[in-house]
Amino acid sequence: MPRNKKKGVFKKKGGVIKDLTRKVFKVLNENSGNPLNYKQIAAKLGLDDHAAKQQLLLKLEELKAQKKIKEEDRGKYILDASKNYHIGTLDVTSSGNAYFICDDFETDTFINKSSVNGGLNGDTVKAYVYKRKQRNKLEGEVVEVLERKKSDFVGTLQLSARFGFVVADDRSMNNDIFIPKDKLLDAVDGDKVVARITDWSGDAKNPFGEITRVLGKAGEHNTEIHAILAEYDLPYEFPLEVEAAAEALDVTITEEEISKRRDMRDVLTFTIDPKDAKDFDDALSFQKLENGNYEIGIHIADVSHYVAENSILDEEAYNRATSVYLVDRVVPMLPEKLSNGVCSLRPNEEKLTFSAVFELNEKAEIKKEWYGRTVTYSDKRFAYEEAQVIIEQPEEKKHTIPAEISITDEAYEVDPKISEAILKMDVLAKIMRGKRMKSGALAFDKIETKFNLDENANPIGVFFKESKDANKLIEEFMLLANRKVAEFVGKTKAGAAKKTFIYRTHDEPNVDKLEALGNLVQKFGYGINTKSRMTTTASLNKLLSDVHGKAESNMIETLTIRTMSKAEYTTENIGHYGLAFDYYSHFTSPIRRYPDVMAHRLLQHYLNKGKSVSAEDYEEKCKHSSEMEMLASKAERDSIKYMQIKYMQNFTGKAFKGVISGVTEWGIYVEVIENKCEGMVRTRDITSDHFVFDQEEYALVGRKYGEMYRLGDEVWIKVKNADLERKHLDFYLIEE
């Protein structure tokens, strides 16, 4: 049965109007500066019977006594224009309660669900903020919704004979959306749909809406994946005109085009990527010079050559801003002809590239640098696992890749020249990494959880990806190119004009968050020294190293990441704290990130001696790119959670060993050690005692026997329920 469907939800009942406080606030707010008597207010509210008018009189006196409104003239009321009214945003919880976020206050203000008054998560609202006498704490009440954060919601349709309700997937959306029969768009009961709120006024507890898209039957795999994308308004198909524009591109590499570029086709070049990769953004070239130094080229797909600025392909790439990596698919930023075809640096094919070429000595010191457009030819494609075989056998004169690791499923012998290049570049990469760590960089080597999927995208196993030397080799040379390109453009000589560029910045962590992390990890026997920037990063790196491989590692690594500021794109360079770089950009992945395309265009513009471009225009593009990156990241996390729940459906009733990864008043979160799937044990399901939440101890504590379930404790659980539609994974605690 749909919630909120009982009689009286949408109409006055017995002359008594619902949500009267909100309606009074709304009328007085709309007539700000113009005092109204109760008859005028009643008329604006459409109250014409005696009982309703009497209720209004009582409500006006109550609000006056609470100092939420004031009596300007005798019998005339006005909103108190004092400092008690503030504008901010709402953070609505799954319980229906909310927090009012406003720069006027140091902490967020609690708003009871009865006082949210139609405000939804992320909405900009005007709120009345006051002190509760009993607790002396600030609380608030929404007076008016000024701007909706979103009006489209993904959910499941529950249909009756005359109308429907859409129950939103978003847990912060606590009101089902009422759908009239003529607004159903042929959706049937149980369909996953996108519903748009069209009206929320009068006495309605529920918003009115219409269905704009039918995604399919709830619970089906493709439907749920498309629902995740729709939740963040991320596309999963290209418009036909965009596909047509990609197909119409002339991808011929002409002699005329080659003549405009540095020809590096004869230099040894190869790619190292994940085994299942289809788009290869980057390649490395290697040659030993007569002076004993090494020339290493970082070659990046020249997407900007094919995607003309302001073209239909460019507009689509900008709107998407990033590829989205879900558990079972990639939703690319560019059509497949570009992403997997002409722009992908596939082996044994000539490609147009944009390159950063460095001359390095044995100490990995840069002696020369060059930037510009090139034409390259990749001699070989490696998977990370194949390159790792070479790195782990530095003394071998010949390297054989075994069949079980080979991307061709057949054993083969590696060209000795390529083996030599990989081994030397590994040595140089380790020197560069050591310098970064010494300069104060953070070493986040978080293990990734991956799923083995069958032909129907059902999870049949879990495995973990850990960054090894081959991954770090590629990482270091990509970091080198990103850093030096940003430095080349951004580091101006004294008196020279500043050039607008795209930077990837990362601010210093919040001191309060670091202190909270320090207090938490202390309970596990670890510590953080925040005396200076260097002691902070050194102690954080020691913490990450010490917890590696332990039961609590994933939890502490996640909590440490949360103390960090979010990296973002901007034209205002403040450096990158996590990498310990003064200048940093994104240059090396233009197939999957739009900021890299912008960086390529700007770099070429300045190589052509062009003047600085408008910072304001590019700042807007940076902001959009950061926002889209955040949405893509949320979709990726949701798809992992969905797959975890789908996987754990196979193990209902089975016992697992886990670690407590979070503690709240309503329960504990437990992460299963063997597969990293996280679910909740609800407090009401722990029956050995009456447990209460102790915020200081990050624990649930039994009132009678004093037993504690503390963050980081190892426990045994059984799978209680894996609900795909509601994205819930619930556990029972094995309490013996």
TrEMBL record:
Source organism: Wenyingzhuangia gilva
The record's catalysed reaction(s) read: Exonucleolytic cleavage in the 3'- to 5'-direction to yield nucleoside 5'-phosphates
Q: What does this protein do?
A: 3'-5' exoribonuclease that releases 5'-nucleoside monophosphates and is involved in maturation of structured RNAs.
Q: Corresponding gene?
A: rnr
Superkingdom to which the source organism belongs: Bacteria
PANTHER family in the record:
DIS3-LIKE EXONUCLEASE 2 (PTHR23355:SF9), RIBONUCLEASE (PTHR23355)
As for subcellular location, the record says:
Cytoplasm
| Keyword Ion transport assigned | no
Which part of the chain is the S1 motif domain? Answer: 653-734
Please identify the protein, giving its name as recorded.
Answer: Ribonuclease R
Q: Which SUPFAM superfamilies match?
A: Nucleic acid-binding proteins
